[in-house]
Amino acid sequence: MFKIFIVEDDPWYGEILQYHLGLNPDYEVTLLKTGKECLLQLQHKPDLVTIDFSLPDLNGEELFKKIKAQQPNLPVIVISAQDKVTTAVSLLKLGVDDYLVKDDHTKDLLWKSIIRIRENLSLKEEISELKAELKTKYDYANTIIGSSAAIKQVFRLIDKAAASTINVSITGETGTGKELVAKAVHYHSARSQQAFVAVNMAAIPKELVESELFGYEKGAFTGAQQRKTGKFEDANGGTLFLDEIGEMDLGIQSKLLRVLQEKELHRLGGNIRVKLDFRLVVATHKNLAEEVRKGNLREDLYYRIAGLPIMLPPLRDRREDILLLAHYFLKAYSKENKLPEYKLSTDARRKLLQYPFPGNVRELKAAVELAAVMSDQQQIEAADITFMSDVSRDPLEGKEMTLREYTRLIIKNYLTRYHDNVVLVAEKLDIGRSTIYKMMQKGEIE
Fold this sequence. Notes:
Blueprint: E1 2-7, H1 11-22, E2 27-32, H2 35-41, E3 48-52, H3 60-70, E4 76-80, H4 85-94, E5 98-101, H5 106-134, H6 149-162, E6 168-171, H7 178-187, E7 196-200, H8 209-214, H9 231-234, E8 239-243, H10 250-262, E9 264-266, E10 273-275, E11 279-284, H11 288-294, H12 299-306, E12 308-311, H13 322-336, E13 343-344, H14 346-354, H15 360-374, E14 379-380, H16 403-417, H17 422-429, H18 433-441
Parallel strand pairs: 1-2, 1-3, 3-4, 4-5, 6-11, 6-12, 7-8, 8-11, 13-14
Antiparallel strand pairs: 9-10
Pfam family, one: Sigma54_activat
Protein name: DNA-binding transcriptional response regulator, NtrC family, contains REC, AAA-type ATPase, and a Fis-type DNA-binding domains
Domain Response regulatory: 3-117
């Protein structure tokens, strides 16, 4: 039952409100005549209080303050014969949930106000529950979605990594979410208030790797107009995440090993020793032990970076998480695009569960977002779902398209979603900005 106190010194008017609200069987309505009586009855924990502004013993503002002193979160509605705007504004600024003027519409307005307050209370309870969940052992679920045994094992390893200073090595197929795990380790560790610096070793040209990691002094090489700190220094006090560590050149590996051993470096072209304090997290889709056997990775470096190994399972090995992830991505897509939430039909769910997802979570995300784009309704059908590796399927109901036309469709969708921010879209799609600009110049994209 939802307990409501009505504080009204006019018995006739109070009984009208009590009768009107009592029509809802979920409401337990109690009529009180004075402010002092209300304060004494607060021990019975009402869910909402309505108070007359002009009571014989306390005015509305005085009673409101006393109520809040006892129960700060208790919703209060003030009902007054005064229609002064200044009074209403003053009370609303103090935190009154609503201010109603006594007239022929008061009963209906009160009814609607209580419904709104109940909805807000329900929302606050949900938020409180969610916050409590995020503080539990598996609070990484707000970024790493899943409830399977395989992903829970990953959560357990994240807990152990976050509670220590040990280096961490994350392995897994492309698209399994290695950077998300690296961030989870960092943001739940003692270094969470410091920088998280991510470097994709596969994306840096070989000749620039050293200057990117170690930094350089002015005049160190042609074009070095001023001193620049490297990624090691940028991560000082925090976490350095080296993605695709298996792509690192052997020459750079020896220099990385020295930094890890000495906890210091010299910028290119400089003699000053720079002291370092960072936590190293590495990731790769390769088997690091196998890379050592092949001679692609120094054995001594391997033992330095291996630390606590976290192996991310491919999506095909955690199939019970597929629909959970799909619903999460669809909800996020709907929110980003300010659309009603999409649902999956039974056949669509079956199709997702039967697919092996060689591209893992990243491929699932792309598939459900494209399905939302192609769907003509808020329920996604199996025919709306196209997998990039499934060449037999066509997202436009049999209409043949070239790869460039598919690219154009996807880029247009992302430009719409991110308000024509070319830089952000290029980053999201992992393509060059010039690709988008050239398509614009040719009139392929507006």
